[in-house]
Write a structure and sequence with these properties.
Helix content is 51%, strand content 16%. The chain has 11 helices and 10 strands. The strands form 3 sheets. It has a 4-stranded mixed β-sheet with strand order 1-4-5-8, covered by helices on one side. It has a 4-stranded antiparallel β-sheet with strand order 2-3-7-6, with no helix packed on it. 49% of the residues are buried.
């Protein structure tokens, strides 16, 4: 598979770049933050995403969607990252759709039309601690009548306070640390005993701490098989990691473009500082690191679309590499902007904050490296 976009994908990239760049640039995020927005994104913009067809990219044609793949979803996510656009696209159109693709036809019939139309937002309730450790799932799902009773807590659930659908990883058997015994559930907004407390993160986005106090769901809420949810969770996380890697790539590329622009404009000793060889070397190194990460991301998404056995590992590699490359990009960006880069007046600081939050999502670089080593038998 060639590591470049085909003609149709390049057209989608042009469309997404123009639309998101015009409709939701960095100042859009700044305006939401300054207004103390309690939703975390613009519902009107989410509807526009639907009108553009973005929300239905991963929904199969048989279910009324576009029938495209993770490469195309990644194209949209890179532009979201480039513009720091607050959006539930990753959790809804990528994560939840991937999970529901492994669910029942009834679940797809219920949620896919709403997601495709921009009428529904989904959240992914997976983590329970300060760090991403999916196998440590402890939230209990006990048999109750013809369904289950969910008891426990989830943390850092993006859009959890406004989500219409919450995809929940719960334990129906075994103990924390074991992959077997995990089950995925589709929990609807407003379920009795479910509370969500939003917290504002470093990048001004909102994530919720969610408490499940005996939340009752029927058997139809199970996504996939009881006790066999690890395979579905793995698919969801692989899609989420490759998607987060694309968004990270956009953050890194956006920060680099802003920095290179500053190097061309800022003058010292009567010439642009971009003419200084030391800064040229740093910019060239940064460009190389981002391009290597870009290749890793595209490869992971191609493998996901091909249903390859190597897709899980490739998604981990992509997430780790973009975490490193984007961290370098935003740090170099702030440094090359000098003291003004630390002020709220300049947007470069927003890229650093968004990059930091995304780096933790679905596991940071250290988590991915450890997981890859374990898969290799170390």
């Amino acid at each position: 598979m060639p590591l470049f976009l085909n003609d149709e994908q390049a057209m989608l990239q042009d469309s997404a770049r123009a639309f998101i760049g015009e409709s939701a640039p960095v100042r859009h995020m700044r305006a939401l933050r300054d207004a103390g927005d309690a939703t975390g994104f613009s519902p009107a913009l989410w509807k526009q995403f639907a009108e553009m067809g973005f929300t239905a990219i991963l929904i199969g044609e048989a279910d009324g969607g576009m029938g495209l793949g993770h490469v195309e979803a990644g194209i949209v996510l890179e532009e979201i990252g480039r513009n720091l656009t607050p959006s539930p696209f990753l959790s809804t159109a990528v994560g939840a759709v991937t999970a529901l693709n492994g669910g029942s036809q009834a679940q797809r019939d219920l949620w896919f039309p709403r997601i495709a139309a921009g009428d529904a937002v989904a959240a992914l309730a997976i983590d329970e601690g300060a760090k991403h450790r999916p196998a440590q799932t402890a939230l209990a799902a006990e048999r109750s009548g013809n369904g289950f009773r969910l008891t426990g807590a989830k943390t850092f659930v993006a859009h959890g306070h406004v989500a219409d659908l919450i995809v929940v990883a719960a334990r129906t058997a075994g103990k924390p640390g074991e992959e077997a015994g995990i089950t995925l559930f589709a929990v609807e907004k407003g379920a009795r005993g479910l509370t969500a407390t939003p917290e504002r993160l470093a990048d001004a986005s909102l994530a919720a701490h969610m408490a499940f106090d005996g939340v009752e769901v029927d058997a139809d809420a199970v996504i996939g098989e009881v006790d066999g949810g690890w395979s579905g969770l793995t698919a969801l996380l692989s899609a989420g990691r490759s998607g987060a890697a694309s968004e990270l790539l956009g953050v890194g590329a956006g920060a680099m473009a802003m920095t290179v622009g500053y190097l061309k404009e800022r003058k010292q000793f009567g010439q642009p500082i971009g003419g200084f060889q030391a800064l040229q070397h740093r910019a060239a190194h940064l460009y190389s690191e981002l391009e290597v990460a870009r290749a890793a991301v595209l490869k992971a998404q191609q493998l996901l679309d091909a249903g390859s056995d190597g897709a899980t590992r490739a998604a981990m590699v992509a997430k780790a590499m973009t975490g490193l490359a984007t961290t370098l990009s935003v740090q170099e960006g702030v440094q090359m902007h000098g003291g003004i880069g630390m002020t709220d007046e300049y947007d470069i600081g927003f890229y650093m904050k968004r990059g930091r939050v995304l780096a933790e999502l679905f596991g940071d670089t250290n988590f991915q490296a450890d997981a890859i080593a374990r898969l290799a038998g170390y």
